[in-house]
């Protein structure tokens, strides 16, 4: 008897325990022999694991590993030792993420050869500017400068006014959003994507608000508007398409994880992921030479950018991002999600979700820097979510299409 993931269920397996949906609904009794339709229904009801007779996860893992030759496994394991260099694989969530990534890469190498393994891009050598003194520039001082420089879209303030006014209605929100054709187009693309998977097409902002909710759509609109404040970042410092893809991926993973947890705002989680690294753009724009050096050092030492920023600057991009969003009067919880997305301190479950999502976004194809070292999810952070590691595989499967469609909605 053992607990196995939904993806590993096969017709003919026998249930050891009753199959119960997350909402408590009874689906299938113990002793039942699974059919294809049972597995399909179980998946549609959000079931991620089941107890079956004569099988367990460890046995399945060993079977999966034995399916690949040493010529496939050895280069993959060597590659993974770099990605997970600082990860604590004793944490069940990190062990599962490592397992999924290993299986994905083994399949890739078996099909296309070792050369198919992704390679980190090079980072130009850089030095600190002459006269640099650690502590001479603070997170607060560069945020003050940024607030003065940034041209924040008027639509943001209009949306904020509607959200903060208790007398506002869905019609008021629609009137504001519809006046910005670019924002409206992006929102409708997202609403009609796999992000929501509505059965029929939503063809107007008013209809979208009716289905999603005024506050939820307003939260999405605020996050999209914030992106417009950051243009003109020097191309030698970062590939902006790559930066926003990672940010979108983090938002998607955060939202998908949030669907398994009660009483969290999945739209706010998406925006938290979307903006979690916004502080990096502020540092890029305000301290370009110092930014280039921290990127170079992180790549050279295979360390996280946040750790290098603290060593060199005395603060990191999460400090800067949180301060900026606070100055822009973003919701307090969203500010906390950005500030603690590296899991340094577990202040709220949404911050923990954002931290876990950042790790998953780096690991599964959308690294934020060229070093692509996966940040580790701490045991405290994962335990605070109160969910099984069995959801991870399902989240990864759902994420790919959503990331692609949202990236298309933002950038075409």
UniProtKB/TrEMBL annotation:
It comes from the Bacteria. Gene3D superfamilies: Hypothetical protein af1432. The keyword Aminoacyl-tRNA synthetase does not apply. Keywords: Transferase. Residues 149-344 form the HDOD domain. GO terms for molecular function: transferase activity. NCBIfam families: HDIG. This is Putative nucleotidyltransferase with HDIG domain. It comes from Seleniivibrio woodruffii.
